[in-house]
Amino acid sequence: MDTYLAEARQGRETAGMIANPTIDELDDAMSVFVRARPGLLKIANRIVGNASEAEDVIQEAWLRWQGTDRTVVLNPSALLRTTTVRLAINVVQSAWRRRESCASPWLPEAADTHATPEAAVEQQDAVERAVLLLMERLTPRQRAAYVLREGFGYPYSQISEILRLSVANARQQVARAQKCLATNHRRQPVDSVAHRRLVQAFFTAAQSGDLAHLERVLSIDADHELRCGPKSRGASE
């Protein structure tokens, strides 16, 4: 904790964000982060698959947390999870570029609210392509379970409540999603309206730290599948 506190003071002074942050401000920031850290580390480990790189991700997440205007954050733990996911994905994507291939599927990258207009356009395009990939290859239930579990570290018990599935079925949906993405499963048509809705939900979650809207969008699509039944590819799954 002392390390985080010292880094918080140094980071704030270097960035010139708050000239003389109070001890209470630093303590509050540190307290929130330390409570969330175990879960963040699990998320980072799950995405990057390397303990050392996961620690680097968590350290960067801590630095980002220092630079955040925490007075406008509705859900600190959700924002920290979103930041961790984005940073971990960046690590994985960098590795893909070096190897020109990837050993595991990826999730959409969250938006950087401090990006330049040019970078924001690139981020928008990357998120749209990533969401399209998930929608082409996964059924709505698979997609919802996979995003909540692999992207945001939701426990299976919570996923089962959101999607109205048993815990065992929620686990099964994630396993099937991983298999479909890893084996380059054949693609299915994607509704442009549904695609835009899910893309916007990711941006909303990234910008506000409030995952409620993303949960609703994912669960609505999954509910529609339950009511109408799976199509073609998903019928045998």
Spans of at least 5 consecutive residues whose pLDDT stays below 50 are: 1-20, 96-106, 232-237
Shape: globular
Described by strand count, sense and barrel closure, the largest sheet is: none
Binned, the helix content reads over 70%
First-to-last CA distance: 47 Å
Descriptive notes:
It is a single chain. With 237 residues, the protein is mainly alpha-helical. It has two domains: 2-99, Rna Polymerase Sigma Factor, Chain: A (Orthogonal Bundle); 117-236, no CATH class. 72% of the residues lie in helices and 0% in strands. The protein is built from ten helices and no strands. The relative contact order is 0.10. Mean pLDDT is 75; it is low at 1-20, 96-106 and 232-237.
SSE layout and pairing:
Layout (H helix, E strand, L loop, with lengths): L1 H14 L7 H26 L2 H16 L9 H24 L17 H21 L2 H12 L4 H8 L3 H16 L9 H17 L3 H17 L9
Helix pairs in contact: 2-3, 2-4, 3-4, 4-9, 5-9, 6-7, 6-8, 6-10, 7-8, 9-10
Features:
single chain, 237 residues, mainly alpha, Rna Polymerase Sigma Factor, Chain: A, 2 domains, 10 helices, 72% helix, 0% strand, globular, disordered N terminus, disordered C terminus
In short:
The chain has helices spanning 2-15, 23-48, 51-66, 76-99, 117-137, 140-151, 156-163, 167-182, 192-208, 212-228.
